[in-house]
Amino acid sequence: MTPQQQPLKGKVAIVTGGSRGIGEAIVKHLASKGADLVINYTSSSSESLAKDLIEQVKTHGVKAVSVQADIGSLDGPKKIVNAAVEAFGKIDIIVNNGAIADFQPLTDTTVELYEKTHNVNVRGPLFLVKESLPHLQEYGRIINISSIAARLGYPGSSVYASSKAALESLSRVWATELAEKNVTSNSVNPGPVLTDMAKSQGQDFIDGLQKSTERAAFHRFGTVEEIANIVGFLAGPESQWVTGDVLSGNGGYLYL
Prior knowledge:
By secondary structure, the protein is an alpha/beta fold.
């Protein structure tokens, strides 16, 4: 592979929630660009998925390790960073992809749901970036996977939408705080993508998403590969002048 074909050769990328869905696609795409990978997963049931993924990405001539850690726990971020530093000695790219979603009407929203969601979707990324700072290289990249829900008024999305809006805000703060190190920080804002997380919300939710795509220029769900392509751009050298921004990958989905 030439440097043009693998512009991320020698870079080390952490991808949280990297064993399935959008995270898996991001891992594969960054590997194809030459990045070495730290694949985070939460559940022990995903261990085999992570191991299989490591074997797949090695075909691109890159190295990869996996680490089981709950990003929403107090020690999860540090565990992920320690695994990256132990394996590769540095960090160049952080993709905050790991997230949970549980759509409930406001009347059914609980403190437990709020805390669980914000611990994973907000506190986890915040402290992962903080723990990474001593090892994050100049011209590093922080890429936060947000959601179109952060900017739309989906019924039942109070907790999830607020967590993603908070993540976008953190992303803008990091863009200014880390600029002197030439680190960029951006969010990717996917529209409807039919992932396992979306399917877990039930058929009524899926039907609603399907109907909502009628408002988009492309009347279909997005694919995980299409989101991964956006992440690949932000991870590469061509995006150095892009920071503090939100790139919306939603097929022309119209905002309410």
